[in-house]
Amino acid sequence: MKMIKLISKTCYKLYVVLFCCILNTGVLNASNRLDVDTTVYVVADEGPKFKGDMTQWIGENVQYPQVAWDNGIMGKVIVAFIVEKDGKVSNVQVVRGVHESLDAEALRVFNKMPAWKPAKINGENVRYRFTCPLMFNIERAVAEPYSYDEFIAMLEREGKIPLENIQEETDPVIIQMYVAQKQQFLKGGESAFKLVLDRMSPSYNVRVPANFIREYKLDKEQQKKLKVVYKWKRLEQEKLIKRMGKKDLIKRFAELSPLFAHLNILEEVKIRECMNPEQHLLYFNDLMKEKMIAHEPDGNEPCSCKCFYRLNVSLHGIGGIQNRIMREVKYPMIAQEHNIQGKVVVGFLINTDGRVSDVHVVQSVDPSLDAESVRVIRQLPPFIPVICPIHKRKVAVYYTAPINFKLQ
């Protein structure tokens, strides 16, 4: 009988221990002190603390999913996790999601998070449940454009360098980049490129565009000065074209690209002299809207040369992007039925791998026309990446493309 009672008591103690474990309240020792507390707290004497700048760490480790970036998907993902007694992060889960790609990236980032300083109750480390929002936001035009003061400083500095002091490009990587870009758009090869060069000849009638006169309110004297500038540039271009010779035109153009680019800078110097300060500031602002560079260096050194005036990269031309866009665009039936017309301007980023992303409407006309414009730009094939000729690295280029919808 005593043996039966002893077994019963033993079983009872074992039952109590198991019950405590199941409830996650710990195991009691002989002095009734809790040895292992697996309780998860949401309130503590001292909350857990990230070691360092949490915002900076997340910014350095999060990667915007390409599918979300390409489709403009943004939002706030709410993540919950436990900071263990040793500070390690565990049990990461999405409490409120946005899109499967953003949710997966949030889980990936928080699962690789370094150890925190653990929460404390009565001086003892405890497990603590923490909730944190992670905002995914696509920033438009990530480039840092020139300020007007920087632009003027560049013109005054570069404008002092004569064109004859500029050396030809000798780097084979840069030359190949230019050749590839031209061949990508010139369906007719050398013969098509010759047509482009012919249009740079001074034999064409040089005049100041009417819309340029209207937009910047140029008087007769300013128009006369500007016409002289345009004619001067045509003559200088003709000298460079003759210097190219008649063979391997695209390659020779690539080799002379630093001279063509510097000629553009010298032209900007002269254009400034034809305008008053208010007109030139307006002109500068319009210039910045058309072309920006988002620097994505391959190395650790930032690409801060403000070099896009030297890139001399044009996506427009014979067989170029504009022709490709017009071939693909389909006038929405609903817009035709309601006689909706206009010019939609779409902005987009050409990344360092040549792919198009961050497609967005800069100037809207109608939802149907806007949607069609975005669709066409998103399906553009990859471009040849642009390379900074100064730092010898790829850079992302931000462009805007106008798409005209006009009923016949």
What does this structure look like?
This is Energy transducer TonB. It is found in: Cell inner membrane. Keywords: Cell inner membrane, Cell membrane, Membrane, Protein transport, Signal, Transmembrane, Transmembrane helix, Transport. With 408 residues, this protein is an alpha+beta fold. Helix content is 44%, strand content 18%. The chain folds into two domains: 98 residues, TonB (TolA/TonB C-terminal domain, 2-Layer Sandwich), CATH 3.30.2420; 258 residues, no CATH class. Strands 1, 2, 3, 4 and 5 form a five-stranded mixed beta sheet that branches. The chain is elongated.
- How many structural domains does the protein architecture include? 2
In helices, the fraction of residues equals 40-55%
Q: Describe the main β-sheet briefly.
A: 5 strands, mixed
Structural class: alpha+beta
Give a short summary of the structure.
The protein is an alpha+beta fold and 408 residues long. The chain is built from 16 helices and 10 strands.
What's the layout of helices and strands?
Blueprint lengths: L1 H21 L17 E2 L12 H8 L4 H5 L4 E9 L5 E8 L3 H12 L7 E3 L2 E13 L11 H11 L13 H14 L3 H10 L11 H7 L3 H25 L4 H7 L1 H17 L3 H14 E4 L13 H4 L9 H8 L4 H5 L4 E9 L5 E8 L3 H12 L7 E3 L4 E13 L3
Parallel strand pairs: 1-5
Antiparallel strand pairs: 2-3, 2-5, 4-5, 6-10, 7-8, 7-10, 9-10
